[in-house]
Structures are given as structure tokens and as C-alpha cells.
Amino acid sequence: MAELTTYRQAVSDGIAREMRRDSSVVCLGEDIGAAEGVFKTTTGLFAEFGPERVWDTPISEQAIVGAALGAAMTGIRPVAEIMFSDFFACCYDYLANEIPKMRYMTGGQVTVPLVIRTANGGGLGFGAQHSQAVENWVFTVPGLKIAAPSTPADVVGLMASAIRSDDPVIFFEHKGLLASKGELAPPDHVVPLGEAAVVRPGDDLTIVALASTVPTALSAAEQLAGEDISVEVVDLRCLVPLDAKAVLSSVARTSRLLLVEENPYQGGWGATVASIVADEGFELLDAPIRRVAAECVPLPFADALEDVVIPTVDKVVDAVRRLATF
Amino acid sequence: MAELTTYRQAVSDGIAREMRRDSSVVCLGEDIGAAEGVFKTTTGLFAEFGPERVWDTPISEQAIVGAALGAAMTGIRPVAEIMFSDFFACCYDYLANEIPKMRYMTGGQVTVPLVIRTANGGGLGFGAQHSQAVENWVFTVPGLKIAAPSTPADVVGLMASAIRSDDPVIFFEHKGLLASKGELAPPDHVVPLGEAAVVRPGDDLTIVALASTVPTALSAAEQLAGEDISVEVVDLRCLVPLDAKAVLSSVARTSRLLLVEENPYQGGWGATVASIVADEGFELLDAPIRRVAAECVPLPFADALEDVVIPTVDKVVDAVRRLATF
Amino acid sequence: MTVSEDTSIRVDAGRLLEWYEEMALIRRTEKAAYDLFMSGEVKGTTHLAAGHEAVAVGASAALREDDYVFATYRGHHHAIARGATPAECLAELMSKATGLCKAKGGSMHLTKADKGMLGSYAIVGSHLPIAAGAAWSAKLRGTDQVAVAFFGDGATNIGAFHEAMNLAAVWKLPVLFVCENNLYMEYTPIASVTSVPNPAADRAAANGLPAEIIDGNDVVIVHDTVKVAVERARAGDGPTVIEALTYRQYGHSRADPAKYRPADEVERWMQRDPLRIARDRLTSLGVGEADIDAADARVAQVVDAAVQEARDAPFPDPAQALTDVWADGGAVWRN
Amino acid sequence: MTVSEDTSIRVDAGRLLEWYEEMALIRRTEKAAYDLFMSGEVKGTTHLAAGHEAVAVGASAALREDDYVFATYRGHHHAIARGATPAECLAELMSKATGLCKAKGGSMHLTKADKGMLGSYAIVGSHLPIAAGAAWSAKLRGTDQVAVAFFGDGATNIGAFHEAMNLAAVWKLPVLFVCENNLYMEYTPIASVTSVPNPAADRAAANGLPAEIIDGNDVVIVHDTVKVAVERARAGDGPTVIEALTYRQYGHSRADPAKYRPADEVERWMQRDPLRIARDRLTSLGVGEADIDAADARVAQVVDAAVQEARDAPFPDPAQALTDVWADGGAVWRN
Ligand SMILES: Cc1ncc(C[n+]2csc(CCOP(=O)(O)OP(=O)(O)O)c2C)c(N)n1
Ligand SMILES: Cc1ncc(C[n+]2csc(CCOP(=O)(O)OP(=O)(O)O)c2C)c(N)n1
Ligand SMILES: [Mg+2]
Ligand SMILES: [Mg+2]
Fold first, then answer.
1. I want to staple A259 with a disulfide (CB 3.0 to 4.6 A). Which of A155, A291, B267, D181 is the partner?
2. How many C-beta atoms surround the C-beta of residue C17 within 10 A?
3. Interface contact flag, C321 A305, Cβ < 8 Å
């Protein structure tokens, strides 16, 4: 069996591999240097690459992302860290109005090869302003590629693609997965942006999941196997490019679709996937499309409350049971 | 027939009516005072209510919306203007992390009765950073009420509800509709938040539309009537609260649903509505759910290009024809 | 450190003893919070303000009951200084139904609205415009309330700080911007990412505002400085920036051992513990050690009881998760 | 106005005549843009820089070909000063396929990347951190390129300005922050919403930066000031803030008649037209009126031809709407 590593370590590894390959890759962010990141996801980078490649910034999210953009326009491949994805709101002008529109507005004159990495999602008890899963925020804006891996190997493989991409990529590292373990990525491991993975094959129903909801879906599938319900789990891995074909071809076999999203139901990414299937896959469906997403409330602090709000294995199992017998 | 007025004038009227009723209603924003707003949507307010009720601000979107929040927490009913809705990105922390979460995070201690008004949408040739329809940006965040009227009377009626609401309301005024005319709202006209309107009854297919896409849908419906396709047009008027019942009960009669959205397809509000119907209305449907939304690109400047990107009457007519014969 | 100790300051011994006790109460509550975090009874994260007590207590003593206070995620001291009990604070940290915010907020979001403590904000700098807005509201309503925003040195490099100062200055709002400069952001020294030596004070003139740099560990100096600024604000003379030099006695958050801080720096600041400074002042004012120790003993009792009370409190009813979004108490977003 | 005219400045007459011609070219192009807007051939909006020519031409003359320039929606002058032709600018405004940005950008987004003109930004202040990033890139790549960000007085109250200055100062980036202070935001006088008299310059010290306040209508003064700042930047001595006082000769945008401006103020500034100032300097340097008029005539010819060329150009192929999102030239977001 391959060696195991943590998702957290995979982040640093993935960045380091690219920094070794390409000297134009430069990191910036708050506390990422000597402190190695508040989530320890930039471990070893400062030691290996030094202050010319790993830059500590002030608490200035607009300056961080804005500077990354300016650098990307002029020959650097910046990898900017926004400590918590909730803080995307503090630099959203760059995410929504500047970065994704730059190439288009200039008629293709300017290319923006940058990565914005961020710790995303809940599960660590950080409360309403530090726990959100906000892939859907950036999903509203055309012009950004969006990766959200669920395993250490995918972290490395997608990081390689993200950093090598000539397009801007928003890279979500899930806080709740940081301590999880998985196979070490082999050398030169590259996962193309926009390819979903069938992480568990099944026949009765398709679950489409992303990042933290992949293990949730897998646990549910495992439990449901004991009830003779065969669930296929598709890990989208990216929202843009969106591997809609993978979803549609799974639904073509299972005829049933459940989306499991960490973001709130209203405006969630799963709604777009659902709408594609409700259009292009309408004739494939034998049952309603359902979404297990977060309740439409801010994230509460207490575990007892949080469990009511976010998708859990129980909720997924329950939803599958009801759909399977529809 | 009732007197006519413009949508633009209805905005000022709607605000003025509430300012007369309640002295705690205070406006702030860029160039809204003596200059009466760059879209002339605060006409007469400064003259009638003076500088103590109508405050010109610096170009500081965070300060505008942040100050509105602080004032709302302490006894004022601020009505803040963000000149173009694209600039929501410049104060998105307040829209996403502060305002909608305040009441919840404090366990109900603090109430936030504020309105943020903004000129939204395309059609005036202002390019990629001044033309977006961004209802979907705020729709990703639970805790905000969202109004987007399509007629002068609804502007007044929804403005009354928004300003009287003890919850935060994001109020979208559509730039492309400002010059359009409609019936003057009667005195004391109030349209409750969260009630859709069937603006054209029909039997064969339901179009759900919002703001600018309402007239687009109505034109399409008119044209299709000549082809003996009877289209029902539902004007959502609000995204939160969402009148899902109105949509479902229309679809219960027509069995066919088309959503017409100005925002891009990816992450659009229509996806959430589609997903509700694909779940709760699955058995009502005789055809796929379709969405005519903007293409997933930034908004181009030239009209010849913009027409390719945004929903047009032709695109709606075409989509309805194909769905009606499905 | 550029702080010159002003020995000419006069203060009533009885009042100072009250302040001492309040600071001790905060200190002991923070210690309890730390222990509860380490034992797993507080989950998530917590940012302790031990070392910063003089800022909260000194400032609070200069405010009226109906004034407004806005704090950061490192805000336990401000909640307590404004009258939140250790029991309700700890209950919040421990996810209990009796918490200040019904366990919906957590350590980073202590709020005690009925005491004018209008929240702890976890997005750096976000509350500065909000505090300006509360001050604007006071002005609009014609009260002479004042709003005070407390923030860290790290917050001085974020745009919202600049926007808030400018708006407050132009509108002459009754707001104080009080920086608790503890030399560090999370783990990075503020000096390494800031273009001026005094991150808050050196930015004041850019908005035409007066600034004071003070010893933030001396409760008397804090009180006296804030008092003057509050009077200015109430008189309609606008905002003041105060930069209070202080130091945190724990790490940034959670179990951070703060290894990035030089030992001699820590040592120097521990010598300048706000409780010790206050104790010295009390002694020199003739207050006996026994009286001070009695205050400590009272505090110990209160906090021990608070821990017990919080421990005994129930977790919230899960149904509470779907309340409190809207003013009607509910969370319904669609029909 | 605090500008003192420095009569000791020396400049080569030939060079100044070139600058004059360039300014005249901008002026005439703006006039053409105005006429085309009024006749409906330019749609949407347009923000003319007539009156601001000396800033663009003077600064540009102090830069190298490989330096970077970042401008605002009021940016035609910078595009032209960096080498964009009037024809390609007007074509962009007229939604033509031959426009600088293939008619995808429009008046507010002129960009000429191969001349280092890295864009016109329509969100106030947004480009200031971006310019700092380009300067950071130059530093990282070890070139000695400089980035210059031009912005309005209104932009000085937005957070991004503060963040950009601080980052640029801390990292000692080779960037210039050049404010075109024309006294107004859209319709509101900047003084009424700004806490200091010099909106840009008075904020520099807050980030440890040097500042200059200059006559932005005198191309020679602009050139000389920028030159010194550029040298500082290239030498690794960090950013400079320059506040150039100027005035717009049209309204804010579209057909705005700018009625909110007092007649005597307008009159005073029209007297200080940058073209007139340059013409006076030329005459005092001994350049004959005929030579200057010849420049005007050349410019008229170029711009008239440019209008014709832009008029004759085709509208873009609709298929172009779905290109240029990604580096592969396409816009595919799903399979
Ligand atoms: C906008 C934003 N960026 C980053 C963070 C992460 N963060 C939390 S506390 C902190 C350090 C803040 O330092 P300072 O303002 O000095 O306050 P202190 O913690 O020292 O009291 C950072 C970077 C945040 N909460 N918000
Ligand atoms: C963030 C943001 N807020 C508001 C606007 C609307 N707006 C466009 S130009 C302008 C005035 C800007 O004034 P100034 O910076 O002085 O530049 P000038 O137009 O005078 O050249 C405003 C408010 C905007 N584009 N971006
Ligand atoms: Mg600090
Ligand atoms: Mg201006």
C-alpha cells in the first residue's frame, strides 16, 4: 500500500513541488512565512524557498489579492493565501470584478495565472464568520476556475494543475479535512482541472459531492450498502470547469440524483448541477432530484446546533432511503 | 386609467413616502444629496428632508454599509445606496458576514432594520464592471431579504415593506427599467415581501422572471400567444422570502417551467428555483426545466456582443417553443 | 516603548480598588477559559485577553451606561467590563444554552446588547465602520452617546480602518478608535508588516484626527485618556485615536504557546502586568495588601462558581438552530 | 490652490513641443469622443480627461517603454500617452471590432498591454493594489521597471488605497501613486467628504511615504516631479505619492453639464488649461506660433482620420462574445 500523508501536509507538498519546478511561483499571505500558516499548510516553504519566494503580508486582503493580480499580469505565478475563505468577502471586488474579467475586458491582451488558496468550510467550531463553505460565492462569477479537493492526492494533483494554469484558480482547502489521511501523491502527480472522479461505484442512486461532503457521502453509501442500496458517489473535485458529463452519465445508469453540499440550500452550487440534470437529464430520472445542503441560517457555534444546520451522514442516509423508494 | 410614472421616479417617491411616515428613516450614499443621485433616484429628497436626513458620503462602500449597520443596531432605519450593484463586491464583508449574521450570532439580541438600495443590471452599455445583475451574490447568504421589483408600483410597494421591515433588505433597482413607465402606486401602497405576482396568466408553460426579465418574458409571451402557446408569467419580485408556492402552483397547472434570469447560468438564482421544482414538483413536470440565463462570460461592452450574452426575447421565445413541443 | 509613566496622576483609592477587582475578574475568567479549552470543554477557538485588562476596565470606567462598545474576537474583557457575568461568558464558550448568545456566537462573538456591548467581531477591522455608524446614530437621534471601537494593531492595515476614520472625521462623529497594540498579529510582529512605527496613532493625522499613545497596562492612564476623548466626542468635537500599548499573556488563540516571541520581551511585559501596576498604585495610595487579597479572593469565588454554573447548564435545544435569523424570531426563507 | 509656479524649470523646446502635440492629440480625441457620444455613435458612458492631459503626458515622458501604467475609467489620456492610437481608442468607444479591447471593454476599460498600459479600472481604487503587485513583480524578477497608478481624488477615501500604500511601503515597491485631484468626485466636491485638505498627499505620511503636491496642468512640472520619483523607485527607495492638481473640462461623464461647479471656479481653471500653459512656455522658449499651430493642424488631421477609420470599422462578430475568458481563448465552463 502506498504511503499515507495528511491533507494538511499535501497542501505544503503540492505547493513545494511546483515552486521547485518553476521559479516564477511565489507565495504571499498572512503568517505564511516563518509561522508556516495558521493551519500549517505552508510548512517548510519558508525554510526551503526563503523570503524572496514566501512573503508575509499585513492583514490587507485587498492588497494581497490585488497584488497577486498585478504580479500575475506581469510574469509571476503568485499563490496567494486568504486565511479563511470567509475573508473572501473582504477582497471580493478582486474575486468578482477584477480577476475573472481581466482577460475578457482587455480582449485577451492580459493573462492571469494565479492561485488563491483558502481554508474553507466548517466542522472545527469556529462560528458563523470562520466556518462557511463559500465555493458558491465564487461560482456566481464566470471567469474563475474552482478546485475543492477531498483527498491528499487530489490536493497535490489539483494544486499542480492550478499553479500551472494560465487561468485564475480558486483553490479551496477544507478545514475539516486537514487532519484526514490518504495516499501520498506519486511524483509528478497531476489531476486536470474539471474531471470528476467516481469515488465509489453504485447502481441505485448517484450522490454528487464536493470536498467535505465526499467523506460524508462515502460513509452514507457504506451504511446504505448494508441495506442493499447501491450508491454511486461522484466527487466533482472542481466546480469550474464543471464535469457535467460525469454527473449525467452516472445518472443515466442510476436514474436518481442526490446532491450533498456544505453551503446553504439557497444559492448553493448543487442547484446549478441540479438544474443541468433537470434539463439535460430529465428523461433519465425516475425520481425527484434532491439536495442535502446546509439550512438557510448562519452557522451556529454549538455542536448541538451545528449538526442541525450542516449535512450529516444521517441526513444523507435518510434522503437516499426516501429517494431510493420513490 | 391610473396616472403613469417612471420606475426611476417611483424610487424617490417610495423613499419619500417612508421618510414622511417615520423620522428615523435616514438616507446615505454617494452623490445622493444635492446631486439627487447619479441615476436621479433620490430626486427631491435632499430638498424635502435636508442634510440631517440625506447624507452624502465619501467613496467608501465599506463605511457606507458598515455605518448603516451600526445605525440600524441603535435606533435608526438607514437606507443606504450603493451606486452600482457591482460595488457590492467592495463591501461584501458587510453583506455576507456582518449584516445577515448579526441577529443570529447574538442569539437574537440585535435587530437590523436597514435597506441597501442599488442600481442593478445591464442594458445601458456600461461594460463588465457596471452592468451585472447580482441578486445571486446576496442570495448565497442566508439572513438577507431580497427585493427586485419590475414595475413602478412594485417599487413603491416593496420599498415600503423594505423600509418598514425589521430585517435587512437588499433592494435592487434595475438600471434598464429606470426609464420605463407604469401605474402610479396609490397612497399607502404596500407590497409584502415574499409574494410573487402572476403578471400574465397562461396554461401551457410557466415562465418565472425577475426585474428586467419580467418585461422580456411578457414580450415573449405576447409573441407566443400569436402561435397559440399560452404562457403564464410569474414575477417573483423577491428572492427572499421566496414564493416557491406560487411557482409550484403555476407549474401544477402548466407542467412546464422556464426560468429567465439576467445573471449568468452558473450560480444563478434560477438554479435554486429549478432545484426546488425538480424536487417538490417532479411529478408535475411534463418536460425538462430550462433556464434562459446569461452566458458564463463577463458582460461585453458592444451591443452586438451583449445580445449574445444576455437573455433576449428571441432566446425566450425559442426556448418556450422547444419546451412546449417537448 | 515610548510610554512615559505619568506619576502625577491622581485617583481615588476606592475606585482604583474596584478597577483592580474588575481586572482580576477578567484575568481569572480568562484563566478559567484557558483551562476549559485545554480540557476540551471549550471547543473551537478562543482568543484570551489576559494582559489587556487595563484597556477594557479603564475605558469602560470612563463611559456611561448608554454608550456603545464594539470589540474583536479577543473581546472577553470588554464584555465583562461592560457587565456581562463570567458565568454567561463561560457558558457561551462552553456551548451552553445559558450563554450570552445562546451558544450561537461562541468565544469570538460575545455580545451584551442591553449593556451597550454591541458585539465582538471576528473579521479584522469590520467593526470600525459599524462603530462609526452607532456614533452617527447617536448624533442623528440627538443623544450624546459615544461609541468606542477596540481593535488590534493588525487591524490598522486593513481598508475599513481608513474608511471608518475618514467618515467619522468628516461627519464629526462621537466615536473613539482605541487600538490595543500588543505588538503582534497572529504570529507575525506587527512592525514587520506596517509602514509606520505606531500603527494606529500614525494613521490619525491622515484623517485629521488627534491621537494619543499611552501605556495600555495602566488602568488609570487608560481611564484618564479615554475620559478626555469621550468629553471631546460628547462635546461634538469628533473622534480620537488612542493607541494603548499592551501585551497578551497567552498565545494568539487556542493552545498557541507563542514561541515566536523573544523570552526577554515576554519577561519585560510580564513585569508590566496591569494587575501588578494597579496593585503597586494601590499600595502607594495606602491600600493594604489584605484588602487587595480580599478582592482576589472574591474574584476567585465568583469565577469558580461561574465555571460550575456554566458546567451545570444545559446544551441548547437543537431546535434553536433554526431561530433568530429574522426579527420575527424565525428562519423561514421560503414558503 | 497651493501650487507655486516654478519658473526656474528648464526644458528643451523640441521636447516640449512634442509634449504639446501629444496633449493636443488627447484633447482633440476627447473632443471627438464627446461629439460621437452626443451623436449617439458612442453608447453607454464616457469619462473624458480633457484638462488632465499634462498629467498623462508629463508622467509618461518620465517613464521607460517597459514601465507599467494603471489608470481609471477616466483613462483615455493615459492610453494615448502610452502609445494607443486615437483610432483604436475611438473604435473601442464606438463598439468596433478594431477597438483596443475588441469592443469588449469600452470607454472605461482601455488597455494597451504591449505598451505597458495595463488597464483602466472602473471600480474606484481597485487598481492601486494591482499596481503595487506589478511593482512587486518587477522587484521579484529583478528588473528595474516601475509601476505608476493614476487615480482620482475620490479614490483616496476607499480602503484599497490605504492597503496598497502600506503594502508598497513595507515591501519598498517601485510604484508611484499619482492622484489627479480635480476637486470633484462625480458631482460632489471632494472637500465635503474628505477629512484632510489634500486627499492623497495628506495620507502619505500615514504610510511613511513622501508626497508632492504639484500643478498638474503644467506638463513640465509633472514630468520633472515624476522623474525624480521614478528614480527613487528604480533605486529601490520605494513609493512616492504625487498629488497633481487639475480640473476636468467636461462634466463627470456622458452629457453631464457639471452645473454643480461655480462659474468662477471653472473660469479660473480654464485659464490654467494645460495646453495654454504649455503654449506659453513654448513661446517664452522662442518657439514660433506657426510651429505650434502646425502641431495643432497635424493633430486635427490625425484625429479626423481616426474618427473616419473607427466609423468605417466593422462591429465585432457576435461569436466573439464567447471568446477570451480563458487563456485558451475560449469560454467553456462545463462539458
Ligand atoms: C479580515 C481578516 N483577516 C485575517 C483574519 C485572521 N486573523 C484573526 S486575528 C488576526 C490577528 C489580528 O491581530 P491584531 O489586530 O493585532 O489583534 P490581536 O489578535 O493581537 O488582538 C488575524 C490575522 C481575520 N480574522 N480577519
Ligand atoms: C468603488 C466605487 N464606488 C463608486 C463608483 C462610482 N464612481 C465612478 S467615478 C466616481 C467619482 C470618482 O471621483 P475621482 O476619484 O475624484 O475621479 P474623477 O472621476 O474625478 O477622475 C464614482 C463615485 C465606482 N466606480 N467605484
Ligand atoms: Mg495584535
Ligand atoms: Mg475627482
1. A291
2. 18
3. yes
pLDDT of residue C4: 40
Match 483551562 to its residue by C-alpha cell.
Answer: C35
Torsion D292-D297-D300-D306 (CA) sign: negative
Give residue C9's pLDDT band: very low, low, confident or very high (50, 70, 90). low
- Please tell me the CATH code under which domain A4-183 is placed: 3.40.50.970
Which residues, at least 6 apart from B39, have a Cβ–Cβ distance to it below 8 Å?
Answer: B8, B83, B119, B173, B175, B178
ipTM confidence score: 0.98
| Count of Cβ atoms closer than 10 Å to residue D259 Cβ | 9
Does ligand 1 have an atom closer than 6 angstroms to the CB of C216? no
Nearest neighbour of C104 by CB, restricted to A34, A130, A305:
A305
Per-residue pLDDT at C203 exceeds 90: yes
| CATH number, span B197-324 | 3.40.50.920
Predicted confidence (pLDDT) per residue in B46-71, tens digit: 999 999 999 999 999 999 999 999 99
For the whole prediction, is pTM greater than 0.90?
yes
Q: Distance (Å, rounded) from C-alpha D94 to C-alpha D39?
A: 11
Cell digits of residue C193: 508588516
Asked whether D240 and D62 are in contact (CB, 8 A), the reply is: no
Domain spans of chain A, in order of start: 4-183, 197-324
DSSP C98-149: TSTTTTSS-GGG--BGGGTEEEEE-STTTHHHHHHHHHHHHHHHT----EEE
Answer whether A4-183 and A197-324 agree in fold: yes
Chain length of chain D:
335
Query: How far does Cα D224 stand from its chain's mean position?
Result: 17
On the question of a cis peptide bond just before residue B241, with omega within 30 degrees of 0, the verdict is yes
- Report chain B residues whose CB lies below 8 A from the CB of C333: 142, 240-242
The span from the CA of C318 to the CA of D246, in Å, is 62
Ligand 1 close to Cβ of residue A2 (< 6 A): no
- Residues B160, B190 contacting (CB under 8 angstroms): yes
Instruction: Tell me the CATH number for domain C2-310.
Output: 3.40.50.970
* Confidence check: pLDDT of B174 > 60: yes
Q: Do the beta carbons of residue C143 and residue C113 sit within 8 Å?
A: no
CA A117 to chain centre: 10
Which stretches within D39-173 are classed as H helix? 53-61, 76-81, 86-93, 127-141, 159-170
Beta carbon pairs, C and D, within 8 Å: 61
Query: Pick the catalytic residue: B44, B89, B127, B130?
Result: B130
Question: CB of D239 within 8 A of CB of D233?
Answer: yes
- Strand, coil or helix: C91: helix
C-alpha cell at B240: 427572499
Asked whether the CA dihedral C214, C215, C216, C220 is positive or negative, the reply is negative
Grid look-up 503540492 returns A14
Closest CA to A260 of A221, A226, A280, A290: A290
The pLDDT value given to residue D7: 53
pLDDT at D212: 98
Q: Is A58 on the interface with C (CB under 8 A)?
A: yes
- Cell triple for C320: 434553536
pLDDT tens, C224-283? Answer: 999 999 999 999 999 999 999 999 999 999 889 999 999 999 999 999 999 999 999 999
Backbone angles phi, psi at D44, to 5 degrees: 80, -115
CA distance B159 to B45: 15
Nearest C-alpha of chain D: how many angstroms from A174? 23
Measure the CA–CA gap between A176 and A119, rounded to whole angstroms: 9
Cα C139 to ligand 3 centre (Å): 31
CA pair distance B260, B294, nearest whole angstrom: 9
